[in-house]
Specification:
This protein is α/β, with parallel strands linked by helices and about 500 residues long. About 35% of the residues lie in helices and about 25% in strands. It folds into 2 domains: about 300 residues, Rossmann fold, CATH 3.40.50; about 100 residues, 2-Layer Sandwich (GMP Synthetase, Chain A, domain 3), CATH 3.30.300.30.
Length: about 500
C-alpha cells in the first residue's frame, strides 16, 4: 500500500473539507490530492532518487511528502536548524535527490549537479496543470521515508520506513474519516521527526484540518487555539510546561480543546499533574515510540490520566508515569540480556510487529532472527501490561555495582518547588565507579543551594541514589522535540572536571 492511498481515500470521501491552514485559507483535500499529483509528476520528470526537504512544517512539507509518494521516491526531511556544513553532510549521505528548501537556504545548499528549488517555487509548481497519467506504478516494499535519528548518544543515522510500516501504524490506530467537520489539529513538532510524519498521516486519514506552528511560542499557541477553535493538539513535554506557565488561569483560551497528545521525551509528573488541572475538560494522551517503530507503540489514554489524578490508589497514580499499554499488533518483551523476564522485572525493551522497521539506510538492522527490535530503552511492565520507560540503557548509572536509572532521581528533583529542569548523569569515581551528578535549571526568580537539592534527593530516595553533586545551569541542551541531550551534558561536566 502506497501512502498516497491515505490521501486518495480522504480526498474521495471528504474532498471539499479544508485540509490545511487557517480557516478558509488553505487547500481542500481534493486540492491537496491534485497538488500531490502535479508535484509528483515534476519529481518523476526530474528522475529524482529522493526528495530532500529543508524547512519547517507547512503546506510545502505536506504537498512534497505526498508528491514523493506519487512519484514513489523516498521523502527525506532534514533538520533545517543544523549548520550548513552539517546539512551538506546529510545531503551527501542521502544521495541523489531533488532538494526543496526555504528560500534562505537555496544559495548555500546549491552545488554542481544538485537540483535545489525553493518552497515558493515548489508551491508554484504544484499549482500547475494536472499530470497525465494520474499516478506512477507502485514498487512493492519501497522506502517511503528516511529520517535521521536525533543523535543523542551518537552521530545521526538514517532510519528507513517502508510504506507498509507506516500504513500498518495508521490502519491499526486511526479510524478512517472519524473526525467531525469542525475538528482542527494544531501541530508544533518539526517535519524531520517521526511524530511530524505520523501525525500528518493520522490527521489526514481522520479528515481533520491541520494548522502548523513552525515556531513554538506559548502565547502564540494559546492565541491560535482560541482563534481557530483547535480541538486536538500535539506537544512535547517542554512545550506543555511553557504553556502551563503562560496560561495564568486563562482557561477560556483552551475551551475547545478535546485532546492533547504528548511524547518525544519524558514528561515530569509535576508538569503533567499541573496541566491536567489546568485543562479539566481535555483528554490527555501519552504516546511512546521510536523512529524505527513508525511512531507510537504504546499509549496512555485519557481515562488513565484522569483516574490517576483523582484516585487515592497508589497503583493508579503510579501509572501516570507510565506510557500505557502497547497498541494492537505490537508485541513487547522486557529482556535481561537475551532472556525475557516476568512482570515488574527491569530490563531492555524489545518490540515486534508490522509497523516495526528497525532498518537503516546503510543496510544494517539490529533485529534478531525472530524479528524482535531492541529499542535500547530500559523499562519494565506491570501485571496489567502498563509499560514504564526508565530511559536509554546507555544512560544507566552504575554505582557500587548497582544499576541506577537517572529518571528516578530526576523525577524527585522535579518535585522541588525551585526546580524547572534537570539532567542526572554519572561521572567517573575511583571508589564507587560512578558518582551521581545533577545539572539543574531553577525557576525564574528562585534560588536554592546545591546542598539543599542534594539533601532533598537523600530524603526521598535511598542513600545510594543521592545526587552527590548538584550544579546550577541556565538551560539544558534539548532537541526541538524536548529530548534531553544527555551526552552533551555529560561532556560539559567532564570538561569542567578536567
Amino acid at each position: 500500500m502506497n501512502l498516497l492511498t491515505i490521501l486518495d481515500m480522504t480526498a474521495s470521501a471528504l474532498g471539499e473539507r479544508q485540509a490545511l491552514g487557517h480557516r478558509g485559507q488553505g487547500p481542500t483535500y481534493a486540492n491537496l490530492r491534485k497538488q500531490a499529483g502535479t508535484g509528483g509528476a515534476f519529481l518523476h520528470r526530474e528522475a529524482s532518487g529522493k526528495t530532500i526537504f529543508v524547512g519547517p512544517s507547512g503546506h510545502a512539507f505536506v504537498s512534497a511528502f505526498f508528491a514523493s509518494n506519487w512519484a514513489d521516491v523516498p521523502f527525506v526531511p532534514l533538520n533545517y536548524r543544523l549548520a550548513i556544513d552539517q546539512l551538506h553532510r546529510l545531503i551527501e549521505q542521502a544521495g541523489p535527490a531533488v532538494i526543496i528548501s526555504e528560500p534562505g537556504f537555496q544559495a548555500e545548499l546549491t552545488r554542481p549537479g544538485r537540483t535545489v528549488i525553493t518552497t515558493d517555487e515548489w508551491c508554484s509548481i504544484i499549482d500547475g496543470p494536472s499530470p497525465t497519467p494520474d499516478s506512477v506504478a507502485e514498487v512493492p516494499e519501497r522506502f517511503a521515508v528516511e529520517l535521521f535519528t536525533s543523535g543523542t548518544t551518537a552521530e545521526p543515522k538514517a532510519a528507513v520506513l517502508e510504506h507498509r510500516h507506516l500504513a500498518a501504524y495508521i490502519l491499526g490506530s486511526v479510524e478512517f474519516a472519524s473526525a467531525d467537520e469542525d475538528e482542527t489539529a494544531l501541530v508544533s513538532v518539526p517535519p524531520y521527526h517521526i511524530a511530524g510524519v505520523a501525525n500528518l498521516l493520522s490527521n489526514v486519514f481522520a479528515g481533520r484540518r491541520i494548522i502548523y506552528l513552525p515556531t513554538f511560542e506559548p502565547k502564540t499557541w494559546l492565541d491560535t487555539v482560541k482563534r481557530e477553535g483547535v480541538t486536538q493538539a500535539m506537544v512535547v513535554p517542554t512545550m506543555l510546561a511553557r504553556i502551563a506557565e503562560a496560561m495564568d488561569g486563562a482557561t477560556d483560551a483552551t475551551a475547545t480543546l478535546r485532546t492533547i497528545s504528548y511524547g518525544g521525551a519524558r514528561m515530569p509528573q509535576t508538569v503533567l499533574e499541573r496541566a491536567l488541572r489546568l485543562f479539566p475538560h481535555t483528554g490527555f494522551v501519552n504516546a511512546y515510540g521510536l523512529t524505527e517503530t513508525s511512531s507510537s507503540i504504546a499509549v496512555l489514554g485519557p481515562e488513565d490520566h484522569r483516574l490517576a489524578l483523582e484516585s487515592n490508589d497508589p497503583m493508579a497514580r503510579q501509572r501516570l508515569s507510565s506510557v500505557g499499554r502497547v497498541l494492537p499488533g505490537v508485541e513487547i518483551e522486557i529482556r535481561d540480556g537475551i532472556d525475557p523476564v516476568p512482570p515488574n522485572s527491569h530490563g531492555e525493551i524489545w518490540v515486534r510487529g508490522e509497523q516495526v522497521s528497525g532498518l537503516y539506510a546503510d543496510g544494517r538492522s539490529p533485529r534478531d532472527e525472530q524479528g524482535w527490535f531492541p529499542t535500547r530503552d530500559a523499562g519494565w511492565i506491570d501485571e496489567e501490561g502498563y509499560l514504564f520507560v526508565e530511559g536509554r540503557t546507555d544512560d544507566t548509572i552504575i554505582r557500587g555495582g548497582e544499576n541506577i536509572a537517572p529518571a528516578e532521581i530526576e523525577e524527585v528533583l522535579m518535585r522541588h518547588p525551585a526546580v524547572m529542569d534537570v539532567a542526572v548523569v554519572g561521572l567517573p569515581d575511583e571508589e564507587w565507579g560512578q558518582r551521581i551528578t545533577a545539572a539543574v535549571v531553577l525557576r525564574d526568580g528562585m534560588s536554592v543551594e546545591p546542598q539543599e537539592l542534594s539533601e532533598w534527593t537523600r530524603r526521598h530516595l535511598r542513600t545510594s541514589k543521592t545526587a552527590e553533586r548538584v550544579v546550577i545551569r541556565q538551560a539544558l541542551p534539548r532537541t526541538e522535540t524536548g529530548k534531553l541531550l544527555r551526552r552533551q551534558v555529560l561532556a560539559e561536566l567532564l570538561s569542567e572536571l578536567e
